[in-house]
Amino acid sequence: MSDRARKCLVIAAGRGSRLDSDDLPKPLFRLLGLPLIERAIVTAKRAGLEDFTVVTGYDGARIRKFLDRLAVRREVSITHVVNENWQAENGISVLKARDAIGEDPFVLLMADHLVSPRLLSELLDAPLQEGTVRLAVDFDLRNPLVDLDDVTRVRVEGGRVAAIGKQLDGDNSFDTGCFVCSPALFDSLELSRKRDGDETLSGGIRLLAEAGRVSAHDIGDAFWIDVDDPRAVRRAERALIDRLPKLGDGPISRYLNRPVSTRISRRLVTRSVTPNQISMFVFGLSLVAAALFAAGGFVALAAGGLLAQFSSVVDGCDGEVARLRFTESAFGGWFDSVLDRYSDAFLLFGLTWHVFAVQGSALVLAVGFLAITGSFMVSYTADKHDGLMKARFDRGEGGGFRIGRDLRVLVIALGAVLNLPFLALALIAGIMNFETVRRVIAARESRVAT
Predict the structure, then answer these.
(1) What per-residue confidence (pLDDT) applies to 442?
(2) Are strands 173-181 and 133-138 parallel, antiparallel or unpaired?
(3) Residue 91 Cα distances to 9, 132, 173, 317, 422, angstroms
(4) Cα–Cα distance between 134 and 309 in angstroms, integer?
(5) Which of 23, 174, 266, 305 is such that its CA lies 20 to 30 A from the CA of 191?
(6) What is the pLDDT of residue 450?
(7) Residue 222 near residue 125, CB atoms below 8 Å
């Protein structure tokens, strides 16, 4: 048996009538723009799995047609297994895949369970012993994402699963629906079905647990949720949205921009708009704001300030939509960064033009130049600085205060709306250049410390 499972079995045979999805099979139910089964497969791919076996049943032809297109689009291998007896318990669906899986260890997932890639990666890290199963369990019995009336409960003793079931006394954890399995699971399911008349997956796991062959993996604070009904859908949507902010977010982005941008992104993920199109739209807003600055007059100045801040809010949507759809790319992030640099230059130049037209002083040009230069240098040093912040955060020292584009654009907007454009330029020139020097010193001290 290999040290690490490479195959993934996804159970997607049930109808999911509790979800109230207008006769749409449950695996194809769209949560924030993506079908549940696509989320399950892409999550597993990010954990290092690319060979998938999917068991379908209810409305299977429609699901298999979708999966064939998904395999090409997401660059994964998908083998179909049909369970004509899909009304039976889920253990039957697992047994149907026995020949397709073969003698290799495999990951077992449920199409209607959302989990984080980190959960799967950590579950796969420890080698699997011959003839055993490892179950990811959640010891947080107060997890607000768990449906306490429907969850499968687990009692773990000494790192092993001692008991499992819907009705269980003395439970201390929850079954997340994520397993790493040896082929011994198939024999256990057969025995459970023939000897005990129990065709559930839990029945097979229970027999292995009685033999001391099911270990428990503590997921810690990793994300998971069983999407079984409309209430669970709402909880899942909120949880995914709440996980959109990034470690590198500045305070303005985190507390002012994100609460608005995530609401916009929640709508955009159901449309055909792409993250790069959102980036281009934001760039267009910045150009219009810069033109309003240069046009002269307080009304145009104030309108440009409001538009600049709105563009800063929407600027978070491209990344949010990409993360919700699992379509992040190195090019997309780089393209957005390039457009942001152009946007900053146009906004600051437009503001400088406005002030120079009124005052006609060379000092204005000098301050404007320092504002543009400082803004570029803060952006240039962002990767190094964010790496240092992450290292400090991982050591438990906190990430520190981040000065970035969110603060810069807010200062521009406030300076325009309050009719204090020169003060805004001066603040940006001072803050951004000071921050650049501070980052250089921090980077040097970090190098010496390490």
Answers:
(1) 80
(2) antiparallel
(3) 12, 17, 21, 41, 70
(4) 49
(5) 174
(6) 42
(7) no
- Enter the pTM of the model: 0.87
Which are the contacts of 355, defined by CB distance < 8 A and separation ≥ 6?
Answer: 364, 368, 421, 422, 425
Q: Which stretches does DSSP call E strand in 193-235?
A: 214-218, 224-226
Q: Which residues of the chain have pLDDT under 50?
A: 1-2, 448-450
Segment (H or E) for 434? helix 421-449
Structure-token pair, residue 318: 């491209």
Q: Distance between CA 327 and CA 319 in Å, rounded?
A: 9
Question: pLDDT tens digits for 230-241?
Answer: 999 999 999 999
- Token reading at 164: 């499992």
Residue 392, token pair as written in the block:
């400090």
Residues in CB range of 419: below 8 A, 6 or more apart:
298, 301, 302
Could you give the residue ranges of the DSSP H alpha helices within 326-381?
A: 330-359, 362-380
Token pair belonging to 273: 């708009």
Here the tokens at position 341 are 């640099």
Adjacent-strand bridge partners of 197: none
Q: Helices marked H in 181-222 — which ranges?
A: 184-191, 201-210
Taking CA atoms, 56 is separated from 14, 51, 53, 202, 415, in Å, by 8, 16, 10, 19, 59
- Where would I find the beta strands (DSSP E) of 101-195? 106-110, 113-115, 133-138, 153-157, 160-165, 173-181
- Separation CA 35–CA 230 (nearest Å): 15
Backbone torsions φ then ψ of 55, nearest 5 degrees: -95, 120
The tokens for 70 are 């998904």
Collapsing DSSP states into helix, strand and coil, what is residue 226?
strand
Spatial distance between the Cα atoms of 378 and 348, rounded to a whole number of angstroms: 14
Token readout for 42 is: 């892409």
* Tokens matching residue 319: 């990344």
